[in-house]
Amino acid sequence: MSGLKFCARALRAAAVVVATGTPAVAADGWITSANSRVRLNWCAPTTYDSPAFAFLEMQLDAGWKTYWRMPGDAGVAPSFDWAEASNIATATVLYPVPHRLPDQGGEAIGYKTSLVLPIRIEPTDVSRPISAVTTISFGICKNICVPVELKLAGTCHGASAADAAALEAVPRAPGQARALDPKLVAVKGSVAAVPPQLTFDIDFGVGAEDTDLFIEAPEGLFVPLPTRATPDAKGHAQFVVDLAKTVDAKDLLGKELRLTMTGSKGSAEAVWTAK
C-alpha cells in the first residue's frame, strides 16, 4: 500500500464510542445521537424541471467537530448509502467551504458547531415521487472520536436561512466561477522533482482574507495540506505543498488534482494534472 493513501486516523483515540441503531425521532425530525443532532430536510418539489435539493442538517455539542469529504491527515469523511431510497437516479452531496481544525494527530479539515450539506437529487422517473432514505456514516471528535451511523428518512421541515446559506457557500465548480471567486494563476514545481514540491499561485482578489487551499487526489492518494499564505497587495497568494512528507510522490504523476480555493470574497474549484 502506498504511503500516499490516507487512513481514518480520527478513530485512533484511546476511547472510542460507536453510535448505531435507530434512535427516536423528534417531532421536528431531529435524531439525537453521540453529541450531535441530525435530520434530513427533504421537501419534494411538485415538478422536477429544476434541481431538487435535500439538506442534511447537523448540530454538534460545544467543542465537537466533524469532517469534510477529504478530512485531512486526521479525520473521517462522511459517507452516504442510498440503497433503501426509491426513484433516485443520483444524489450528489455538496460541501460548503471547510476549515482547518487542529487535531492531536495532525490537522483535520471540517466544521464545528453546525453543518448543512446540500444534496442535489435527480429522479429516475420525473413522474413518480421520491423516497429520500439514506444511511449516513460520519465521525465527530473532541477529546474522543465517535463514529456515528444513522438511518435517515427525509421529511419536509420547510426552507431555512441555514440551508440557503449552505448552498451559497458551496465552492463553484470549474467553469462556473463568479467574477470575485479565486482563480488558479500558475503551478510551479513537480511531483517527480527532488525534493518533490508544488507551489500554487492563486488570485483571491485585492483585500481578500481567510484564504486557503485544499487539494484532493483520486484513487485513495493523499496530498498534505499546503502552508497557508496571506495574499500580497495584488491579491495573489502562493501555497507550497511539501510532498517529501509522503513515501512516493511520483504516485501522483499524471493524476488530476481537485483544488478547492477559499477566501472571504468567494470560493471555487479548479483541476490540475500533476506533472
Short description:
The protein has 275 residues and is mostly beta strands. The protein is built from one helix and 17 strands.
Key terms:
275 residues; Immunoglobulin-like; 2 domains; six-stranded antiparallel beta sheet; five-stranded antiparallel beta sheet; 17 strands
Could you give the topology of this structure?
Blueprint: E1 31-32, E2 36-42, E3 52-60, E4 65-72, E5 79-81, E6 88-93, E7 99-103, E8 106-112, E9 114-123, E10 133-141, E11 145-153, H1 161-168, E12 183-190, E13 197-203, E14 212-216, E15 236-242, E16 256-263, E17 266-273
Antiparallel strand pairs: 1-2, 2-3, 3-9, 4-8, 4-10, 5-10, 6-9, 7-8, 10-11, 12-13, 13-15, 14-16, 16-17
Name of the CATH class of the largest domain:
Mainly Beta
Number of domains: 2
Beta strand %:
35-45%
CATH topology of the largest domain: Immunoglobulin-like
The low-confidence parts are 1-21
Order of SSEs: EEEEEEEEEEEHEEEEEE
What is the CATH architecture assignment of the largest domain?
A: Sandwich
**What portion of residues is helical?**
under 10%
